[in-house]
Write a structure and sequence with these properties.
Elements: H1 3-39, E1 47-51, H2 57-65, E2 70-73, H3 76-89, E3 103-106, H4 115-119, E4 125-129, H5 132-145, E5 149-155, H6 171-181, E6 185-192, H7 200-218, E7 226-229, H8 235-240, E8 245-248, H9 250-253
Parallel strand pairs: 1-2, 1-8, 2-3, 3-4, 4-5, 5-6, 6-7
């Protein structure tokens, strides 16, 4: 492919991804307004985390240049590679683009032997604390480094064997135990993955159950401010149940 054709391809990619981002942002705005009206609240904020798993650097760069600054990765090694290369790309943005620094979230399953590697990348938020043992190990590493790490407990709200996380029944006790036995891990809320089914009613119920737990924790812990739930296929329903973070991948990068 010659240089001219490459430039056209890149412009088309940039336009497509920018259009996807604009559409998703508008959907989030509409869903947030509907939630506020239903719940009788004001000032509800929803943060979009772009799930960049499986995406190449050029597509991530296009989304960043379109104005998306918060990204989430599922694997530590992928986060390390992409964060390093995109840090260089941040300085190559077109002059007319005024961008914030990229904020990285870790949204996948964290293995205990990868904790030090992840902490070296300074993630803004870890969404996936799925066991007390992981929480205690993470706290120990953070304490050794003298750093405070924001994190969320993962809830298996649909009780699906294929998913990680705490059961609905054990979440509040686990949250209390971790808070009582850690000093450098700052639990700020919950994360869940919606039920894996075509039955939207079941999906919504899994979100509603997680929101009920979140509300219970909010009443007892001042640091609890984040409810991360909803992905490309169900984020509107998640916002309808009170999500404050949605993790969207394929809908942002689709052709």
């Amino acid at each position: 492919m010659d240089k001219h054709a490459q430039n056209i391809q890149e412009r088309n990619r940039q336009a497509r991804i920018a259009s996807n981002l604009s559409f998703i942002t508008q959907q989030i705005k509409v869903a947030t307004e509907q939630y506020q009206a239903k719940a009788g609240v004001t000032g509800h904020k929803v943060t979009l985390v772009a799930a960049s798993k499986y995406q190449d650097l050029e597509s991530i760069r296009a989304l960043y240049w379109a104005g998306q600054c918060v990204f989430g990765e599922n694997r530590v090694q992928d986060l390390r590679q992409k964060a390093g290369e995109l840090a260089i790309m941040e300085n190559l943005a077109p002059n007319q683009v005024d961008l914030k620094p990229i904020e990285w979230h870790f949204i996948g399953t964290l293995q205990r032997n990868k904790i030090n590697q992840l902490l070296a990348l300074s993630p803004a938020l870890i969404h996936s604390i799925d066991s007390i043992e992981l929480a205690l190990s993470l706290d120990e590493k953070c304490k050794a480094q003298g750093r405070i790490q924001p994190a969320l407990l993962q809830v298996n709200a649909a009780s699906e064997p294929s998913k990680h996380g705490f059961s609905l029944e054990s979440t509040c006790d686990a949250f209390a135990h971790i808070c009582a036995h850690t000093s450098h891990l700052r639990l700020q809320g919950l994360m869940t993955i919606g039920a894996h089914t075509q039955d939207i009613g079941v999906v919504v119920e899994s979100f509603a159950r997680t929101k009920a737990l979140y509300d219970t924790l909010c009443a007892s812990y001042s640091d609890v401010k984040i409810l991360s739930m909803g992905m490309s296929g169900d984020f509107m329903h998640a916002i309808g149940q009170g999500a404050t973070i949605v993790r969207i991948g394929s809908a942002l990068f689709k052709d």
